[in-house]
């Protein structure tokens, strides 16, 4: 019988009020694990523990925080193959992708271990004679973290690491669909030497755990990654709460990849296929709109279809697999609905879009490529979050740029070209937070800021030194020496 894995509250592993089951999308007969579900009362207990621990952790030395974060990083990296296998098993991205994500989580903790030693202030002269002015940064308090299922260890890492680095305490709610990686990360954190209450894990639904974090007056800030609809509700709740909460939102994307006539065709195809379909297209930075100029359009479409036909779609843990399953039946149903919507709108399904059967029952979908799409179609405007991409034909660079920017989102964008002129112009004029030239739109280093514009993001950037803007508050202090 599988042991039910517990929540971590106030330095202790505790039972929940129910059970969440974790099913392998590559083999739906495989139970990955069972996890205790927290209720409102347990979430409130976690918040109280975090509040009680905050003063001590906020005043801890940079060396103490460095040591804890460095220890977390060391264990994650030492166990990356094991944890990567767990991640691939529960979420469905391929084993190499899973191991890579775990390694990134370890690198993030190592980066913020160093940042704990680099937090400095400023001292200057006042415009008034005889006064000293100091500008310092202080932690914000208890931070509630709500993370998604598609990056179940990297996204928690890039929220938890800076929060702890800058002296905050944490109540962490991982995605209920894939709690295994978040639970494993929590176990590692509990062995790092952080005092009881500094870090708390509560697995449960957004309607219970998430809502409690939003409503509770002792939660100072909310960091959220997920859908636009939920993000808007969180923003409204944080503004209306008393006192108001600081909030950070990472939401959707409908990311364009522009391919110009002068692009290296081989590079453009690899960039498009990687960005649109790897990780089963379940990335907010996926290239779901492929905007291709007329001179290269037909050759590009044919080459992409040929490349897609060569990819292996199978069990995420098998060697040589390029694309794993969709994460669950609900997401698969959504992907299939959008494929039908695209056909009904008049786009041509040039490749794929069929359900696949493999050795074990799983949520397998052949990657889908639409052509003859227009930018006003739903498949070009709404986030599908699956292995589905639409090719939109453009007359020239100017029209491609206009189409690229014609979206409510602004997370990532890309261009494939050998022209320095067009590459430079696109980087300056693309209305997105991250721009790639001859690279997939998905894939950002762990030490640089991550985030977008318009409907994709709100609040300070995540990752890198820019994370301090969210996890700290600035204080200005004057001294009159007398």
List the helices and strands and how they pair.
Layout: E1 4-5, E2 7-9, E3 12-14, E4 18-23, E5 31-37, H1 40-58, H2 62-78, H3 80-91, H4 95-118, E6 122-125, E7 132-139, E8 142-146, H5 154-165, E9 169-173, H6 179-190, E10 199-201, H7 206-215, E11 221-225, H8 228-240, E12 246-250, E13 256-259, H9 265-277, E14 289-293, H10 294-309, H11 329-345, E15 348-351, E16 368-373, H12 378-381, E17 388-394, H13 397-405, E18 409-410, E19 412-416, H14 420-429, E20 434-437, E21 453-454, E22 457-458, H15 468-471, E23 472-479
Parallel strand pairs: 1-5, 8-9, 8-11, 9-10, 11-12, 13-14, 13-19, 14-17, 16-17, 19-20
Antiparallel strand pairs: 2-3, 4-5, 6-7, 7-23, 12-22, 15-16, 18-21
Based on the model shown, name its key terms.
482 residues; alpha/beta; 7-stranded mixed beta sheet; 6-stranded mixed beta sheet
Question: How are strands sequenced across the largest beta sheet?
Answer: 15-16-17-14-13-19-20
The radius of gyration over CA amounts to 23 Å
Give the termini distance in whole angstroms.
Answer: 72 Å
Shape: globular
Structural classification: alpha/beta
Helix content: 25-40%
Give average pLDDT, whole number.
97
What is the helix tally? 15
Low-confidence stretches: none
Q: Please outline the major beta sheet.
A: 7 strands, mixed
Residue fraction in strands: 15-25%
